[in-house]
Amino acid sequence: MIEQIVVAGGCFWGMEELFRAQVGVVDTEVGYTGGSNDHPTYEHHPGHAEALRISYDPSQTTLATLLDYFFRIHDPTTVNRQGNDVGESYRSAIFYADDVQQDAATQAIGRAQPRWDGAIVTSLEPLTQFYSAEEYHQDYLQKHPGGYTCHYERTFVSDM
After folding, report:
1. Measured between alpha carbons, how far is 144 from 130 in angstroms, rounded to an integer?
2. For the residues 109-114, what does the mean pLDDT come to?
């Protein structure tokens, strides 16, 4: 059975590109969640985060593994910012669907905090509705390999 988790950590293009290559990830979809309007668009999504819905096979990976990776590919210590992208749309957040996901997210923050100099500001927000982004945003960096991204895998001293 395939499971899903929704995360946000800056521009959704870069996160999607990195997550798609992870073992056990069977699908990714960029979209908007956590905001104040129904059917948000790129031009109008007040309060919504640019988010990534990750579908994964739990027989091949775990939620903990995916959340640990999430904290490796973006800076969770910056409020409403990743790289040059600034604003609430670019906040670091985990949108949990149930208590199990909320607990896993809390534990992942605890595991990640010692690796970062600043306090992790990732918000934990209940997932209410995920709205798929426009088609031109889906698989964007597959369509435009030289496109913008501020995401990359970090190596921490504790990894060595």
Report:
1. 24
2. 97
